Amino acid sequence: MHKSLARTALWAALAVTFAPAAALAAPPAGKVSGVVSAQAKKQLDALALEYYEAVARFDPVDATDRGDNRFDDQIGLSIGPKEHARQNAHYNVFLNRLHALDRRALDLRSQTNYDVLEFELNGLLSFANLPELMLPVNQMDSIPVTIANYASGDGAQPLTTVKQYKAYLNRLTQLPAWIDQAIANMREGMRVGVTLPRAAVVSMLPQFQKLVSAKAEESIYYTPIRNMPASFSAADKAALAAGYRKAIDARLAPALVRLASFIEKDYLPAARTSTGWSALPEGKEWYEKRVALQTTTSLTPEQIHAIGLKEVARIQGEYAVVGPKMGYTGPAVALPGWVAQQDKYKPFKTDQEVIDVYRKLDALLRTKLPALFTLMPKAPLDLRLEPELSRATASDHYSAPAIDGSRPGVFWSVVTDPTQYGSTGMVTLFLHEGQPGHHFHIALLQELNLPKFRQFSGNTAYTEGWALYAETLGKEMGLFDKPEDYFGHLNDEMLRAVRLVVDTGMHAKGWTREQSIQYMRDTLGYPESTARSETERYMVWPGQALGYKIGALKITELRQRAQAALGDKFNLPKFHEIVLEDGTLPLSLLEGKINRWIEKNQ
């Protein structure tokens, strides 16, 4: 999963909405000039930049995660009701100004920018009256944990200069106000019946308890001081250490105690015992909006559930073929469970052994990818292990390079216990999270001369759909020649199909948490602990996991359409270039783009 999409489940998930393809393709009513105008483009570019700046200042931590480090000294109060209302007022003004422009007076690239901006603004405004603010934290995503993970300096917020140390310190001074607002929001949620499921609260409580420390020097937020560069002057070292101690001991530590205590003593007893979003006030409509938003389609939860069941059956048919090649003779449905019990597929003893395999694979891919891609990012890709604090709940993920080139894109490997780290899925995982998956898409976004709002935003259906499609390229590169590696690919594909079933099952069809856990164990061979953590992820991020498979199916469909229409004229590297060259798009816009390419080359 792309890291910024993971952290911004609340805000980044709202950065897209849903509209039929015809509506996206049509110009606003009354705009009929048809004359390309440099002035119209200039006005659109100015509006797009204003919009991006408003979003980045509203949620500066999200800006950091997306590679924009200009606001690394701010947290913002995007969860504050008054601030949220002011931001929605800005969005309304931006949308009205956008509609005042003559779309037909724009060139094709600018029309795409217009359509995507309209898409995002409509999406943000469509959630304005839903109680998102009452759920400011969960076990997958919270500002206190995000800021704590920045403390190492290895993540999205760099810590190598005195200025950067002061920026992080400034965030520590602002964190108590954010925490108190989060508590207030959750209290309001308790009052009106909008709370997290109890199981999710049980999972997140230990995270916040770990953030509490008796004194500053023991706090994770003090980590930068323990790691200060030797090049800092003695005066700077002393001043920074004093500043960090004061910020943590005087205000941050008491706020963290308040948060942990509130969650344990007040929020946990009030947490709902139901599973799905449909149990919340306005929950059915709320979930349907999230489904449409995350898939950028008009598919209903029921349709997606049926697609998921169909894909599960198809992949199980593939299991029947690959299983005997691995020495398995039982029923296809039980192949994942059998693989999970085989010690030979858990060969690791140390974290380093795991990361070394990924580095060897990365080196091999660098020799194979040029045959499939002519458009590749200039930014390097680094491979690192996930910080200890977030390993228990994190999944392997990718984080974007810094826009100024000071930080590479990073594939983060999450190894909680190397002796239990399975080897069969490593190839397909790296194709997804590393290259040519997220790295080729996210890093390229920063090199395509796109407006900032498009460089630093996106939608799950394209972002994760591309990464899941990228996994399938392993077969063409000969990376799945070993049956266990092909099984790993199928098993990861099965996970994305299962997500369609359990997400819609829990949030639209009345499934319980326990039903989802059992279904995942039966179809994926997961141990109870893994099935539980995956299920609880979908419980707090409703709809987020749907974009993967829906997006990949659409990209595969478009490739097959192009191959059938163009025959010998079809060029796979060119197809990949067409998909990637305009950055992240709603699926309807991507489909229109591919259709135009086909028509032009027939």
TrEMBL record:
Q: Pfam families from the xrefs?
A: DUF885
Q: Which domain of life is it from?
A: Bacteria
Which residues, by range, are in coiled-coil regions?
Answer: none
The UniProt entry, under InterPro entries, shows: DUF885
* Signal sequence residues: 1-25
Q: Which keywords describe this protein according to UniProt? A: Signal
**How is this protein named in the record?**
DUF885 family protein
Q: Which organism is it from?
A: Massilia frigida
